[in-house]
Structure formats: C-alpha cells, structure tokens
Amino acid sequence: MCGIIGLVGSFNHYDVLLKGLKRLEYRGYDSSGIGYLNKDGIVINKYPESVDTLFKEVKKFTAYCSIGHTRWATHGKVSYKNTHPFISKNGLFCLVHNGTINNFLTLKEELISNGYIMNGDTDSEVLVNYLEYLFLNNHNILLSLKLLDSKLDGSYSLVIISKNEEALYFLKNQTSLLLIEKEEGYVLTSDVYSLDDKEINYYEFEDHQYGKIDNNVEIYKNDIKISHNFKRLIKDDVNINSCSCYLEKELFECPALIEKEIQYYSKSESIPQNVINELNSKRKIYVIGCGTSFHAGLIFKEIVDKEVEVILASEFIYQNKSLNENDGYIFISQSGETLDVIRSIEKVKNAFFISITNNKDSTISRKSKYHFDIMVQKEISVASTKAYFGEVVFLYILAKRMNDENYKEIFDLPFRMNQIKSNIKEIETLAYQVKEYKNLLFLGKGIDYLSCLECSLKLKEITYIHSEAIYLGELKHGPLALINKDFPSIILITNDELKEIGEISINEIKSRDGKVFIKQFDSSYKLSFLLQVYYYDFLAFLVAKNLGVNIDKPRNLAKSVTVE
Ligand code: M6R
To answer: Whose CA is nearest to atom 7 of ligand 1?
Structure first.
C-alpha cells in the first residue's frame, strides 16, 4: 500500500516528484525513493526512511522522465533492499508499484530457474524482473505488459521507465492509477492530491489497461487502443494555519464543518426520497466499512428501526453466505480508497447500494450510483476524527429519515462541540494524568459502548497506550482481572437510568485500587454519546502531544489502506 508518481515532459522533476511524494505520504511513509532517466541513463535514489530524507539527500537533477514511491511495507521489512524503485537484472526497466501480488512466489521461482537473482523480499522486485524476462523474449514492451497482466494475481498499479525511451509505461489493476494532463507533460499517480494544483484534468485508468505516455497518450486493453477523456476537478483547500499538527486543526474545525453538513443534509432533496424508500424496502441492510468508518456504521444500526448488520469490509469479502437479492448495502469510507471496501462493493455491484465518503472523486464514489459526500474537507491526519463525525451526522439523518422521525436535536450539535473545544484546559489536566499509564479501559453500555470503541481506537492509534473498549456489564466476566493501580478506566455513561449500574462497576474497580475517570455529559441531550467521542479525541491528541510522538503519522500506519 503505497503512493506512486511518474512524470514525463519538461517538468522541474526534482521539485514536482519530491513534493508529490510528500503529499502521497498519507498512503505510507516507511520508506521512499525515486528513479529518473537522463542523458546518463537510469539513476536511482532510495532510503528506508520517509520522504523528508529524500529532500535532504537527493541533489537537484534534470530528467526526461521520473518515477517516485512512498512505501507502506507489505512484503518484507523496511530496508534498503525492499525500497522502491526497483531496477531489472539487465537494467532495462525501473519500476514503482502500488498493490500486492498474490502469486509472486511462483513467478519468482520461475525467474530464479531462469538465472535471475533477487536481493529483496518484495513482490515488486519480481515484477520488474518478470517484465524484463518477458521483454527479452518478444522485444515489445506493450506486448510484455499485456502478458505480465495475464500472469498476475493481485492488485497493481505500475509506473515504469524503460532504459531506452523518453517515456513512461504503465499497467493497472484493482488499485487506482490516474493520468493527469499538465502544460509541461503528463503525470501518472495514485491520486489527484499528489499535485498541489487547485484545478486538475485527469483520466482514471480502468483495470487491465496498460500503455505508454510520452508526448502522446497510448492506452490499451487486450491489444485494443482505448480513447480517453479528461475530467476536470477543483480541489478543496487544505491549510494548517497556526495549529501544531493536522489532527489539532481537524479537531478544531470540526464543529463548523459539521454545521454545514447538517444544513445541507437537512434539506430533504439532498437525500432523495427514492433512496430512503429503497433502503426501507429491503429485507435487511448491510453496513460495511473499516476502522473508524465501521464504528460510524454501528451508530446507524443503533438508531434505525430496521434489520441491520454492520460488518467489517475485510470480513465481508470472504463471507461465503449467498447474497439475498432483497438486501441493500451502505458502504462507508472517508477516503473512498480503502481496498477492502472497494472489493466489497465489487461483490454486490448489481444490488442496491449507497456509499458515503469524504472524497467525491474517489474510486468508491465513482463506483456508486448513489454517493453521499460528508463534506468535512480533506482529512490529512492518519487518525480519523472529523470524518467520523461527518459520517455519523449523515447516518443519523439518514436513519431518522428512514424512521420518519424528526432530528431537530442534531442542529444543536455544533454548538455543544464548540463548548467542549473552549473547555480544553480541563482535558489538558486529564491528559497530564493519562499519559503516565501504559494500559487503559474504556467502559460503557449501549450506545456509549460504541463511543468507547472509537475513543479506544483513537487513543491507541496516536499515543501507543494500549486500550480496550469493554461493555460495562462484561467487566466482572474477565477484564476486571486486569485492574490494579496502574490500569485505570474511563467510564462513558450518558444515560441517567444506567448511572446506578455504573456506580456498581465503579466501586468494583475502586475496590481493586483501579483509578476511574468519568466526565458527566448532559444526559437529556440525545447526541451526548457523540460529544463524548469529541472530548476523548481531544484527550488522545493532548496525551500524544505530551508524549512528543508524531501525531499525524503514527508508526506502522497509513491514512488510506489500499491493500488487503
Ligand atoms: O478511509 P476509510 O474510512 O475507509 O478508512 C478506514 C480505516 O482505515 C480508518 O478509519 C482507520 O481506522 C483510521 N486511521 C482510524 O483513525
């Protein structure tokens, strides 16, 4: 799962390539590298470190064409030998790859038996050599790409430099690859955000397309030449202003963005009545997402009066149950690029489904007849915060519309979130205490437990403090064994009727020397379960800040998970 970019034309290759990679780091930042072709041949610079190292180490250069890669490790450790780009044994091709190849070991064995030696552990190194191996048999790059495509099982966007041509070659399957048209030439890249241009003309390649880009664009599928039309995109601005990191900015801007979203979706035509009717007519609705988006889906199930199953996309893909044609589907993905969700959509593509993303120009939105934008502007921090609120707001309104109920309480949400924001000093005091612990439990009941899941994910993701979400009633059935003076609990209770039962659990914890943190929220407000998440998102942010970790880019993670 990685970010790739390639340029051909009269660009300032150094500048556009390195800045492009920096902007693609949300897809992975374990290692980074570039390759380019100039009058001396193919040159490679790569490091098992983030793109900042490229800025420090790579000298300015000029090139006819260039490629770059920022990696999230899938095959093999973070090391020089596993860092892209890879060059083929005889130096004919240099390649960057996003995706994963399931049958790479079979291809590797075939290459080894034909005299190829590979130094690293990646599937991508096999690809560049296999391409060369095919080419040496037929001396035709386009034909070799077509043959390579037929040999591969997996997902792959490849951008390739050939030693003898001022051109880029490419091949694409199951993971996004775009062609962008610029005055200086063409850019091939994983997504439109690799360029900082406000307006962009792009074409999205389809699966199994391959071709050559120089002054001209040649796209093929199965030997047939494909014509292409560019689409115009105007991007949202992302400005970090005076905040210390994107997460801080994203938490602070959340109430204002949510307010706009509420205004928009409270107009009945913004969720057409036929969509409401279709969903209501279904036997059952499956809600599918990953991570934080999955947690947002759980809230929908809690609110809507209908049979709903919320399922992780990574599980849904491999479920063997036959699909019922009377079922409907809701796909949630803030990035719109999560591969597990894309594969889930492919599984039900003929059924009625809607998708919810924060990216109207994503693979998921393009695949959906009914797509709803949560409108909270691009999220950069790996930890998803404002997108969670954007997703829940949309799903809440959708559920209430399906129930034929009013949802006037939601109009008060931005104001109440602003109150939390202006009371950050209180959370700072809590953060100061929480940072001392290595483990922590979030405990809740009913909808508060669903908030616990999200709070716990956020805390562990950005602070590395181990935390778990546990149903309050389950404490005594096992987790209580963990409690001692070094293992505190945060209790989430927004329902007055449950306070008594909560007290019992609190006493059980205190009797074992466990510290309890509890914040009272207005129990008469129906959406207090969400306010809790906002409050504890700030806690996670402030603990991470105290601990001095890289808040926007937690170790081992990436913003968009474009591999299985
Ligand atoms: O872009 P998506 O909503 O599809 O992403 C799903 C998860 O990868 C994502 O929510 C992840 O869990 C976040 N980093 C959590 O903060």
So the answer is: 291
